[in-house]
Structure formats: structure tokens, C-alpha cells
From TrEMBL:
Pfam families: HpcH_HpaI. GO terms for biological process: oxaloacetate metabolic process. Residues 156-203 are annotated as: Disordered. It comes from Gordonia insulae. This is Citrate lyase subunit beta-like protein. Keywords: Lyase, Magnesium, Metal-binding.
Length: 203
């Protein structure tokens, strides 16, 4: 389903800054995660092994949380799991998803759900402005670890990233600019600070 510009009404905004990931196949952790954060992100992607995703979708449907404080991270567009994730969401009241490995506008507007685009690949980074301008894109997040790996870079023992091709791609994405120049016009104001996606809920 494609959205027209007038169809996105009352765009969701997070009730606070603290967001916590929770594996969707661990329903016993759902409420505990929500008690410790402003928003819980129920993860159907990396936090769930492929063989457990059917169970995770069933748990998502059977254990509802407050939809105003919940985001569901779904699998990348074009995969079978992506379609199955959307079908499961149709049986819930959740209206906000986090699109894993977002790389183009079509993958965002393919759903009528409000979408946080997770930029995790070099291609997604170079198209970040276009993705942010999608009518149902309500925010961007950086998947720092996957993006660094996709760029062929790595981290040194103390934590900093070895740059490799990172400056080239971040410049293409409009994230950096030459010294003394003006910042480029933004296609959208829907941006977040650089954010790691490695958090999980407490046991």
C-alpha cells in the first residue's frame, strides 16, 4: 500500500528519549523492558534467530503492549520474513515500525505504517535524504555496527572506528561537509543523533 502526502495524520512522537530493544520471542521480558524505558522496540529481526521468528510473531500478537510506547523492528524489505512480519502486525494495534536495513524510498512507503528507517548499509547512507523525505518516515536511526562493517571498517581495541571509506560515504549522505562550508539543506527534519542498535532488554 502506498501513501499519499495527506494520509499521514498525527505522526507518532516518542514519549521520551529512552528506548530499549527486546527480543520479540521473549514475551516474559516485554513489560519489564517497558517499565525501564520510555519506548520498547520489540525486535523481530537480529534479536531473533530465523527458526524462532514464527514464535516471535505469535508472541507479538498474544502479548500486546501500549502502542503509543512500542515500536516493532521488522525484517528488511524484499525478504519473506518482511511480508510475514507485516501480516502479523495486521493482527495488532501497533502502528510504528523500525525498518531494518532501509535502502530506498520504495521500501518505506510500501507500508501504511509509520516508519523509523534504520540506516545500516552504505547504500542506505547515501540515500538517507531521500528516505527521510518519504511521507511515512517519521525518523532515522543509524545501525552503527552493521554500517561500519558494511564499509569495510572496524574498531580498534579502545573503541574508536578505523575510518577506511567511512568519510566518503558519510559525506555522500550529507553527514559531513568541508570545513567552512554551509550545511546542505535537509530533505527532512526527521533525523536522530547517531545511535547504536545493540541495546537489549534486561533479563
Amino acid at each position: 500500500m502506498h501513501l499519499e502526502s495527506h494520509q499521514l495524520i498525527n505522526a507518532w512522537t516518542p514519549p521520551g528519549p529512552a528506548m530499549l530493544f527486546c527480543p520479540a520471542d521473549r514475551p516474559e521480558r516485554y513489560q519489564k523492558a517497558l517499565d525501564r524505558a520510555d519506548v520498547v522496540i520489540l525486535d523481530l529481526e537480529d534479536a531473533v534467530s530465523p527458526e524462532n521468528r514464527v514464535t516471535a510473531r505469535e508472541a507479538l500478537i498474544a502479548n500486546p503492549l501500549d502502542p503509543d510506547r512500542t515500536i516493532v523492528r521488522i525484517n528488511p524489505a524484499g525478504t519473506g520474513d518482511y511480508r510475514r512480519d507485516l501480516a502479523a502486525l495486521g493482527d495488532t494495534n501497533y502502528r510504528v515500525v523500525m525498518q531494518a536495513k532501509a535502502e530506498d524510498v520504495d521500501s518505506i512507503i510500501d507500508t501504511a505504517l509509520q516508519t523509523v528507517a534504520l540506516i545500516e548499509t552504505p547504500l542506505g547512507a547515501t540515500r538517507a535524504h531521500e528516505i527521510a523525505a518519504a511521507v511515512n518516515c517519521i525518523g532515522l536511526m543509524w545501525g552503527a555496527e552493521d554500517l561500519v562493517a558494511g564499509l569495510g571498517a572496524s574498531r580498534v581495541g579502545s573503541g574508536p572506528t578505523r575510518s577506511g571509506p567511512v568519510p566518503t560515504v558519510t559525506s555522500r549522505a550529507g553527514c559531513v561537509r568541508p570545513r567552512g562550508s554551509r550545511p546542505p539543506p535537509m530533505a527532512s527534519s526527521r533525523w536522530t543523533r547517531s545511535t547504536s542498535t545493540s541495546l537489549t532488554s534486561p533479563a
